[in-house]
């Protein structure tokens, strides 16, 4: 079925129907989630009771607490933002180093190390979390029991969550940055070296600007994936609960339109982030 | 001079890589494997043994969930491929210009929301007091509230939804690289739709198919939120048992053994998939 092969009317109509059905399927859950964030009813379901902004702004006086007055959710949002910041920083830095390592250098055992680099992609997220919990938290327990040394960083908490997420997000960042580095014309760098630049100067003035779009793209992706991650995070989290875990706990108590409000808020924020990165991308190229 | 500088830069770049892979991937997994063979005799004495693995095989609830999770993940992966393929084909081969870019972007929309939000959206649609149930009653097709949540079909709807993007993107990428003359030649030589699909399109798209299937399979097998929130009492998922052992029972040894088993299952199926299709992990993922 390509454009140059004739198709029957019926086939075209069926294909089009399928496409429409598919995109309805994609959009519907998000659409209803967004719409019920504004329904003036205590429960996110039909019938429609009118438009309200209570689920964002109510201060608790009328029996409703909106997102911007809900201290649990706001502090969870802040915890998630901090985690995402550190994860982005670490995994993008590691991703840059790995990309150069695998695209530019030749050394023995490169194939094997490349496969090791891909490994986190074929390990379920739960297992990544569990293994880090067993190793680091177990180490902290043993040290405390045997020698009375308290290594609180390795107790479930923000540090472990960052470590767990960096494990697999680094692989993704590496792949994004490496695919751009592969398209780089090395003659540009050689020209800089011929014109008297030191390798370090050439790297910062020629290669790094070329990589910049992919670095920004990888950073946006890392931030979103960290923010949205649940499976690895829930195994490693301590008393400072990140947003996805807080939402999950809230959802198990029963759903309220505040959850819809948070969901819509997150969707808009990630859409803006994605837009920002693609805009910057097209401007550069 | 040149080689010593090269050496220095090699070590400078190799060190962060090794730290990451050894400290965050290799050592933790080896420790998990070690713990899974430890048997707790009393609160502070440990012995080596296969107790946890024996529990897995003797307790039918464990291995039944294990098999169920594996089979349902494979089915979900297959269903995702079948649903995504015509969409990817349309975007790669039939759509033109602006609509092509827009359709591709539309496929990315669900991923502006996290898995939790997506699952929540489905819950609002499918549950007894949900949108579909209300519509059915309003249309007069149902007399009372209809519960569509908490069964296996709901779980699969949610899982397919979660995986679609990761199937569509690699498929579009490989299909775009395909020369349309090949398809045309296939028709000119007398092939029907099905023959052309089987002999030309599928072999060409194989790297994309395998890459999409691996990612979707891994996501499905390791998912937790969708089965637990959308599934019923009988639709347990294996990850759930790992969570239970670690978080509610504090039985790390049993949890580690279940974790190792899940890892063995996922690696085994990915390996089989690569062998059968003649692809390599490097080619499809790198």
Automatic annotation (TrEMBL), chain A:
The segment(s) forming the ABC transmembrane type-1 domain are 77-277
Q: Which InterPro entries match?
A: Bact_Polyamine_Transport, MetI-like, MetI-like_sf
The Gene Ontology biological process annotation of the record reads:
transmembrane transport
Q: Coiled-coil stretches, from where to where?
A: none
Respond yes or no to whether keyword Ribonucleoprotein is given for this record.
no
Where is it predominantly found? membrane
Q: Which GO terms describe its cellular component?
A: plasma membrane
Q: Where in the cell is it found?
A: Cell membrane
Lineage: superkingdom:
Bacteria
Q: Note whether Transport occurs among the keywords.
A: yes
What residues form the membrane-spanning segments?
Answer: 12-38, 83-101, 113-137, 157-179, 200-225, 258-277
Under the heading Gene3D superfamilies, the entry gives:
MetI-like
User: Topology relative to the membrane, per the entry?
Assistant: Multi-pass membrane protein
What are the UniProt keywords, alphabetically?
Cell membrane, Membrane, Transmembrane, Transmembrane helix, Transport
Q: List the Pfam families hit by this protein, alphabetically.
A: BPD_transp_1
Q: Which family does it belong to?
A: Belongs to the binding-protein-dependent transport system permease family. CysTW subfamily.
Q: What is this protein called?
A: Binding-protein-dependent transport system inner membrane protein
- Biological source species: Marinobacter santoriniensis NKSG1
TrEMBL record, chain B:
- Signal sequence span is none
Q: Which domain of life is it from?
A: Bacteria
The answer to whether the entry has keyword Transport is: yes
Q: List the Pfam families hit by this protein, alphabetically.
A: BPD_transp_1
User: Where does the chain cross the membrane?
Assistant: 71-91, 103-125, 153-172, 204-225, 256-274
Q: Where in the cell is it found?
A: Cell membrane
The record's Gene Ontology biological-process terms are: transmembrane transport
Q: Spell out the InterPro entries in the cross-references.
A: MetI-like, MetI-like_sf
- Every ABC transmembrane type-1 domain range: 66-273
| Membrane topology, from the record | Multi-pass membrane protein
CDD domains registered for this protein in UniProt: TM_PBP2
Sorted alphabetically, the keyword list is: Cell membrane, Membrane, Transmembrane, Transmembrane helix, Transport
| Record's GO cellular component terms | plasma membrane
Q: What is stated as this protein's family in its record?
A: Belongs to the binding-protein-dependent transport system permease family. CysTW subfamily.
What PANTHER family would the database entry show?
INNER MEMBRANE ABC TRANSPORTER PERMEASE PROTEIN YDCU-RELATED (PTHR42929:SF1), INNER MEMBRANE ABC TRANSPORTER PERMEASE PROTEIN YDCU-RELATED-RELATED (PTHR42929)
Q: What is this protein called?
A: Binding-protein-dependent transport system inner membrane protein
Q: What organism does this protein naturally occur in?
A: Marinobacter santoriniensis NKSG1
């Amino acid at each position: 079925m390509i454009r140059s092969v004739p198709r029957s009317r019926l086939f075209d109509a069926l294909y089009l129907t399928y496409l429409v059905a598919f995109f309805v399927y994609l959009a519907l859950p998000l659409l209803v989630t967004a719409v019920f964030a504004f329904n003036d009813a205590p429960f996110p379901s039909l019938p429609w009771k009118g438009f309200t902004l209570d689920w964002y702004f109510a201060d608790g006086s009328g029996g409703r607490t909106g997102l911007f007055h809900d201290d649990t959710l706001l502090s969870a949002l802040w915890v998630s933002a901090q985690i995402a910041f550190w994860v982005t920083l670490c995994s993008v830095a590691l991703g840059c180093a790995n990309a150069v390592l695998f695209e530019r250098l030749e050394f023995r055992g490169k194939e094997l190390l490349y496969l090791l680099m891909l490994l986190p992609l074929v390990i379920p997220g739960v297992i990544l979390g569990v293994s880090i919990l067993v190793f680091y938290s177990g180490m902290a327990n043993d040290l405390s029991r045997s020698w009375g040394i308290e290594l609180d960083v390795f107790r479930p908490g923000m540090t472990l969550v960052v470590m767990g997420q960096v494990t697999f997000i680094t692989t993704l960042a590496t792949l994004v940055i490496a695919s751009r580095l592969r398209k780089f014309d090395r003659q540009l760098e050689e020209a800089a070296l011929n014109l008297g630049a030191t390798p370090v100067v050439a790297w910062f003035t020629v290669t790094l600007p070329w990589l910049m779009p992919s670095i920004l793209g990888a950073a946006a992706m890392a931030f979103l994936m960290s923010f949205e991650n649940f499976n690895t995070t829930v195994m490693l989290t301590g008393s400072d609960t990140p947003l996805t875990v807080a939402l999950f706990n809230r959802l198990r108590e029963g759903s309220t339109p505040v959850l819809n409000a948070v969901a819509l808020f997150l969707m808009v924020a990630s859409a803006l982030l994605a837009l920002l990165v693609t805009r910057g991308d097209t401007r550069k190229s | 001079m040149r080689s010593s500088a090269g050496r220095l830069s090699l070590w400078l770049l190799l060190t962060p890589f090794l730290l990451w892979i050894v400290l965050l991937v290799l050592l933790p997994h080896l420790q998990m494997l070690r713990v899974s063979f430890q048997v707790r005799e009393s609160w502070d004495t440990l012995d080596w043994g296969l107790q946890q693995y024996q529990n897995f095989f003797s307790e039918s609830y464990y291995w039944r969930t294990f098999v169920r999770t594996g089979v349902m993940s494979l089915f979900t992966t297959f269903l995702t491929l079948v649903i995504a393929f015509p969409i990817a084909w349309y975007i790669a081969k039939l759509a033109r210009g602006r609509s092509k870019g827009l359709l591709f972007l539309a496929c990315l929309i669900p991923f502006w929301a996290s898995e939790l939000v997506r699952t929540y959206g489905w819950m609002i649609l499918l549950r007894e007091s949900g949108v579909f149930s209300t519509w059915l009653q309003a249309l007069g097709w149902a007399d009372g509230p209809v519960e569509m949540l908490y069964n296996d079909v709901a779980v699969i709807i949610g899982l397919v939804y979660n995986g679609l993007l990761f199937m569509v993107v690699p498929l579009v990428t490989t299909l775009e690289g395909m020369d349309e003359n090949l398809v045309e030649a296939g028709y000119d030589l007398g092939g029907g739709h099905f023959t052309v699909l089987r002999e030309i399109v599928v072999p060409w798209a194989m790297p994309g198919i395998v890459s999409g299937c691996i990612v979707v399979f891994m996501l499905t097998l390791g998912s937790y939120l969708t089965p637990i929130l959308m599934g019923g009492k009988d639709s347990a998922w294996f990850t759930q048992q790992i969570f239970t052992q670690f978080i509610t029972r504090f039985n790390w040894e049993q949890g580690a053994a279940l974790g190792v088993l899940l890892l063995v299952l996922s690696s085994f199926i990915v390996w089989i998939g690569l062998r059968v299709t003649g692809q390599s992990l490097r080619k499809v993922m790198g």
